[in-house]
Amino acid sequence: MLPGWLEDILEWLREHFWIAFHLVTNTPQPNIPPTTIVPNSRKEKRKQHAMAQRKITKESSSDDFWVLESDIKTHVSYVHDDGKEFIACPVEERRVSKEAWLESHEAHARYIKHGFYKVRHLKVHGRRINDEVELFLMEDGNETPGLRKDLEEKGLTVRLYVPQADKKKYPSPSAKTQPEMSPIDRCIAALKTNIAENEIETDRTTPYALLGDAGMNWETRRKKVLVLIVQESRFKDFFAPPQSEHFTSRGCDYKVFGTYSDDEVHWRCTDEEFMSFFQESRGYYVECMYCDDAKAAEEREQEQERKERKAAKKLRQQQQQQQLATGSQTNSFSALEDQPDAEDEAAEARAEAKRAKEKAKRKAQQARKKAKDEEAETLAADETRKPSTFLLTSRPKKKHNPSSVPRIFGSAGQDDDPAGDESDAEDVDEEGAVCSLQYYGDNIEDMINVIQAAQGERVKIKNLN
Fold first, then answer.
1. pLDDT (mean) for 296-311
2. What pLDDT, on the 0 to 100 scale, is given for residue 118?
3. pLDDT tens sequence across 335-349
4. How does DSSP classify residue 38?
5. How far apart are CA 381 and CA 441, in angstroms?
6. Quick check: 135 and 113 in contact, CB under 8 A?
7. Which domains does the chain have, with CATH numbers?
8. 208: Cβ–Cβ under 8 A, 6 or more apart, which residues?
């Protein structure tokens, strides 16, 4: 005998988990006398005892819910009249919540589908609400043998469980089947789809188009369709008398077999010839080539308008120049001038900026060239300049001092000459008073004054040039 707390744990595990038990025998149940409904488990007895102590005869809920179960662990042996021994399991009632009662049949169907009853010790046979019992179909597709009769003897209403239709979240599609499309309708739908894809790719609508034969694709061995997108005026002119079956685009002549306008496809040939452009093996696929003649016409019109604006602007400029040459009034000049086009103004501004940039570039080049030429001229003048040669004579004093010589000035650089002149002393006689001086400067008088101021009247200068 197990303690009460251990039985509670086992009961909880039995309710929430599947415990697999391999049966020793797989003998089917025979048609034995109906089993007896035995009292519920220990948990139910404790619950009834607690309700009796509190003087509660029924739960607050208006409905009572049970599940009819059998446990292989509580099986009993039964000997038939013919001497054969069978194993039978009594069916018990187990009180459950409303949620478990509602989910009981779904769990029972899942156990049968996946074969869980072959390894599970518990088996569900039906469910009960108050005095009504619903029996479930077992693995063999029948009710539990003898269970209905036993329940009816106890005064219960017994019926077979009938599953209700599942309520889907989304409404089911209409039961009406759509009529199957004919081959010609499939071809038209394929052509419209191809044109719609081209509109998305080019971001241009296709209000009017002529359908022509573009020849053969030698890789696929199928015909190609030329879709010539035209303006409404040319589309109407094509059907104006005298009508023609050909049109020319980019120097090539094409045969027209159909048209496309207002999202409708029309053909001027037989159905067989029209369907010959579509590949049935690929779900009526069509290969198209597009030629946007309407776009080319719009571009030509825009180019013509641009040329007209330029011609008008040139004429206005000529008139303005004539008025300035003849001395006409500025009022008449402003009256003739119109507002220039925004595109022309932008182009003129870019040209003006380019001219100003080139002008500044030329000025910079000329300035650099001029500076370079001046520097070259200065260097050449310094190299070709001839020095002025002077003879300096110094009168000695009465008592001659051999060491006293005229300080003639080994070199006269920029530090000695404020004007930046240069001079070289040559042939200095330490004993006498005569020497020669070469002077490269231009201001000779200043140089002579400097020497006389330094040496006094004892120096005489004679120009040898």
1. 89
2. 80
3. 555 555 567 788 888
4. B
5. 12
6. no
7. 16-160 (no CATH), 183-298 (no CATH), 388-463 (3.30.70)
8. 229, 230, 231, 232, 235, 259, 260, 261, 294
Q: Buried (b) or exposed (e) across 226-263, using 16+ Cβ within 10 A?
A: bbbbbeeeebeebeeeeeeeebeeeeeebebbbbbeee
Beta-sheet strands, E only, within 388-463: 388-394, 411-412, 423-426, 434-439, 459-463
Cis peptide before 171 (omega within 30 of 0): no
Query: What does the CA dihedral 372, 377, 382, 388 come to, rounded to 10 degrees?
Result: -160
Tell me the residue type at 449. Answer: N
Parallel/antiparallel/unpaired status of strands 157-160 and 132-135 = parallel
- Tell me the pTM: 0.33
**pLDDT tens-place string over residues 121-145:** 888 989 998 888 999 988 888 888 8
Of 43-57, 172-186, 293-307, the one with minimum mean pLDDT is 43-57
In the block, which residue shows the tokens 């539990």? 144
Strand (E) or helix (H) holding 330: helix 330-336
Amino acid of residue 242: P
Asked if 287 contacts 217 with a C-beta cutoff of 8 angstroms, the reply is yes
The mean pLDDT of the chain is 73
Residues in the chain: 465
Residue 464 near residue 392 (C-beta atoms within 8 A): no
Least reliable range by pLDDT among 265-269, 274-278, 391-395? 391-395
H and E: helices and strands count for the chain? 11, 20
CA distances 200 to 193, 209, 411, 428, Å, are 11, 16, 92, 103
